[in-house]
């Protein structure tokens, strides 16, 4: 509860992040020590938990935070894109997955996510290309 309040205050700029803090992760109930540098990893971990539970709206919230903290995280970008795709919002998914591929073009999983997104957009030629690239990798 305290973490949620603190996160809200940080988001609106009323409180600055301390270099290190300890809070309870609502997704797991475990105590988590995090610093500014690993905040993206913290949100990415929570986003993965929500993805596993198929709670995509909450996953999008957490993964969006991960991307805000580290926009160059290919994994966070790809997972956020996949969450949007699974919520049937491929238009929102595409830029995140494309960014993930731009950051890490050799990751076949990101190309699979791209193929799925193109399928949802009924762009079958690009879907086929993305799936073919995923298989090649």
Give an overview in words:
The structure is a single chain. Helix 6 (108-120) runs antiparallel to helix 7. The chain starts with a helix and ends with a helix. Residues 1-23 and 33-37 have low confidence and may be disordered. It has seven helices and two strands, in the order αββαααααα. It is mainly alpha-helical. The longest helix is centred in the first third of the chain and has 14 residues, at 39-52. The chain has a two-stranded antiparallel ribbon. Helices cover 66% and strands 7% of the residues.
Short description:
With 137 residues, the protein is mainly α.
Q: Tell me the number of strands.
A: 2
Give the uncertain stretches in residue-range form. 1-23, 33-37
Helical proportion, percent range: 55-70%
Element order, helices and strands?
HEEHHHHHH
What is the tally of helical segments? 7
Using only C-alpha atoms, the radius of gyration works out to: 16 Å
- State the end-to-end CA separation: 43 Å
> The biggest beta sheet, please?
2 strands, antiparallel
- Mean of residue pLDDT values: 79
C-alpha geometry:
globular
Percent range for β-strand residues: 5-15%
By secondary-structure content and strand pairing, the structural class works out as: mainly alpha
| Strand order in the sheet with the most strands | 1-2
